[in-house]
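Contributing: when you submit paired examples, paste them exactly as shown. First protein:
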Amino acid sequence: MDLLDSMKVYVMAVEKGSLSAAATACDISATMAGNHLRTLEKRLGMQLLSRTTRRQHLTAFGEDYYTRCKEILRLVAETDAQAQNLQLAPAGKLRITAPISFGTEALMPALPEYLDRYPDVSIDIALNDRVVDLVEEGFEAAIRIGQLPDAAALIAKSLVPYRLMVCASPTYLARRGTPAKPEDLSQHECLSFSPAAVEHWRMTDQGGAQCSVPVSGRVQVNHGQALRVAALHGLGIVLQPAVLLQADVQAGRLVQLFPTHELPSRPMHVVYLPDRYRSPKLRSFVDFLVERFG
């Protein structure tokens, strides 16, 4: 006899109060229910139920075995449900949040491929640069840049680090000259986030030597896209994420400066709640991000 089936009959016998009631609940004969119980007791070498003509009692061992059977059957049912869920096609609305620059310049161009793969999934995306509470605000996943102080409460999958790039427009360089080394930046118009009067841009050359250059300029903006546009119009040299500037460099609208130097990078992850990964739509999206940006 199947061990799990025998466990189910035993659990039913305990919960329903008799073997006949367990037989009815399991849709088998009373004789078959008795056979299941005897098979269990023979296998264990222990009596599980002490039965009289009027009622049954759990033995001390039978009580402990009942608790263990309940847990085993629960785990089996949960695993079966998870396996069935894995086979379902991703469908439904997925709510995610991402930083503005990454979401605009990297995630949005990648979405057509994802949506073509999974035509039954729709995506609601909130772009902002603050740390969103997934539970409180009803998001299923978030893309986060930087360290994860709450990593213990979330599952995190690593994506490619968020790299920075120094660029300027050809018109600016023709007017002011091209800096030959990072220290020359202190003599140039450098675009920065407000309200910092002076920033320090850090770089490492191929030999491992580090430098921290104080930079300043007449234009300060509190938005990455605005800084990019300012650089495109020749207002100065910009330090921004590569994902924001790469297309302009490839098109010749911007020129990358100090390409052999390494600039600070920040870790990037996709995070989600532990109990949400069973969702086929979320699992498909996380796997896609790791495939595309991992």
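Second protein:
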Amino acid sequence: MKAVSVEEAVAMIPNGASVMVGGFMGIGTPERLLNELVRQRKSELSIISNDAAVPGRGVGKLFDASLVSTLTTSHIGLNPNVQKQMMANKVAVGLVPQGTLVERIRAGGCGLGGVLTPTGVGTMVEDGKRQIDVDGKHYLLETALRADFALVHAFLADYLGNLSYALTARNFNPVMAMAADIVIVTAENIVPVGVITPDHVVTPAPLVDYLVVNG
């Protein structure tokens, strides 16, 4: 794990990169990294996130600046900018049921090819997907999701890169930290090693590549 400035962290992300962004409706989202993505005008990004947040908040800032080419998510209902860009064919949106989305990310982090789920069987969700029968029950094969980068926000990080989360910030950040080639972290508090007790470490240090220093 290496400590970097937010400018250095975002400079590593090229245009066109696939990026997972942690958080849940803007809660637990690495806002400083998103602000810097906008400032550095990183474009044609393929974003994987739980939702599209709202204009001016969370990943919504990326759509405000028209920096996204594709979005894989479970919910865009509170962001009219995303809806307009989707209808204008400026952003390709892949809507995935929320439970399926997090399981596909988890599968990517665990080295699995995908997951079997009954969600979507008999609906338009199954179009173009492989169907598998298990003990007489139909399932869809949903492929694993990985990304070039994961932008993660923690409540606590220590100097080694061990992470702990608060409340709903734990929903997507930990699984995304397992499913990307490069993991960049911001934290509310950076503390000495040992402050986070071992049983409170959710994301262990070996998964973290870069920690954005405070300031």
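If you have annotations for the second protein, write them as plain sentences, like these:
Residues 128 and 147 are 22 Å apart (CA to CA).
The chain is about 20% helix and 30% strand.
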